[in-house]
Amino acid sequence: MYDDNGQKYLDLYGGHAVISVGHSHPYYVKMLAEQLQRIGFYSNSVKNDLQERLAEKLGQHSNYPDYALFLCNSGAEANENALKLASFHTGKKKILAFKKAFHGRTSGAVSATDNPSISAPFNETQHVTFVPLNDTNAVENELKSGEYAAVIIEGIQGVAGIFMPSDDFLKQLRTLCTTYNAVLILDEIQSGYGRTGRFFAHQWADIKADIATTAKGMGNGFPIGGVLIAPHIKPRHGMLGTTFGGNHLACAAALAVLDIMEKEMLCQNAELVGTYAINALREYPNVEVRGRGLMIGIEMPFAVSDLRNKLLFQHHIFTGNAGTNIIRLLPPLNIGKPEIDHFLTTFKACLQP
Ligand SMILES: Cc1ncc(COP(=O)(O)O)c(C=O)c1O
Q1: Nearest CA, atom 3, ligand 1
Q2: Considering the chain, what is the average pLDDT of its residues?
């Protein structure tokens, strides 16, 4: 990226994990421009073939070829619809979520978010219970009541500061949801779309979600969200709906992203370059490094705001944060080792007294 003086920046944050294939990728720009020449939007009451092409392609890429796709405009909206669908499907009200979870700011999504400071009194509900991440007993104690419509979990907790559910925990969670008839919703809005080296982070645990939600990297900056829905969950006509969701421009953006991911093998790159970065960062003393692929949390033993300002204003490197002590890296998936090396050298230099 460049500022208005022409100064070049290295973007290690991708605007909250949104920039997946790189800023202004020429193919992405071309696809959007060409689509806009044809038609940008028409109502969902008229069939839009691009939605079918996207559903088909996303099904293949994500290894969920038999899942239905509902298209919307953001991550919160995707989760909102996932929660509604689970409740419609089971006829139940309660949702199990995890401590420190972030699922968005609309009413349902914020109720399942463990942060009272962004929840208005209007959003308070008795329907959501929070249990600690990776605590199978706590999950089972709740689910055995039989009252839960769904469990919602992030593939990797992002906003909290990159906390991972263990593969074993995800496997057990899958079994518990099946045993107690609760819908397993995997929120892959930050951790999905190739970021960890699998299409969805939960696929490292070799499990299947009943519903998976996606947004952020899906449109590389064009607002789009998606809900992937297992075949056993039968939506009835009109159950979910949207004016803007799945519009022609959004579909063109999402199709362009998948084309680029395939051609440039960005999933593989995320795993390769991300593992390289994580291993190198783990060599630093007093630093705790968490994450997978290009979803990296670096927890420092001090507040990181000065360090991040130094990286940005002196060395022109964008980073993100979580809480006070954690640097969050969510770079575009086409980042290479030279850029990571540049960051590592600069980071090391910034840590010198
Ligand atoms: C895991 C997760 N879920 C949901 C959301 C909400 O997405 P949006 O801001 O597009 O509504 C976010 C946003 O940061 C997120 O990280």
Answers
A1: 103
A2: 97
Question: In a mutational test of the pocket of ligand 1, which residue from 18, 79, 100, 103 has the highest number of ligand atoms less than 8 Å from its CB?
Answer: 103
**Ligand 1 lined by 102 (C-beta under 6 Å):** yes
pLDDT of residue 235: 83
Is the minimum distance from the CB of 103 to ligand 1 under 6 angstroms? Answer: yes
Question: If you measure from the C-alpha of residue 181 to the centroid of ligand 1, how many angstroms do you get, rounded to a whole number?
Answer: 26
The answer to whether the Cα torsion of 277, 294, 323, 187 is positive or negative is negative
Specify whether the CB–CB gap between 292 and 199 falls below 8 A: no
Question: The whole model's pTM is what?
Answer: 0.98
Please give the residue that has the higher pLDDT: either 238 or 175: 175
What mean pLDDT is predicted for residues 295-312?
98
**In the chain, ranges of CATH 3.90.1150.10 domains:** 10-21+265-351
List, for residues 32-43, the tens digit of each pLDDT value: 999 999 999 999
Q: Is the per-residue pLDDT at 295 higher than 90?
A: yes
Handedness of CA 133, 138, 140, 144 (dihedral sign): negative
CATH code for the part of the protein at 10-21+265-351: 3.90.1150.10
Assess contact for 229 and 69: CB atoms under 8 A: yes
**Cα–ligand 1 centroid distance for 275 (angstroms):** 24
Q: Where in the chain is the domain with CATH 3.40.640.10?
A: 26-263
Ligand 1 pocket, 74 CB below 6 A? yes
Q: Is 237 exposed, middle or buried (0-12, 13-18, 19+ CB in 10 A)?
A: exposed
CA 95, distance to chain mean position in Å, is 20
The mean pLDDT value for 76-80 works out to 98
Yes or no: domain 26-263 corresponds to CATH 3.40.50.1100? no
Say yes or no: CB of residue 189 within 6 Å of ligand 1: yes
Ligand 1 touching residue 16 (CB < 6 A): yes
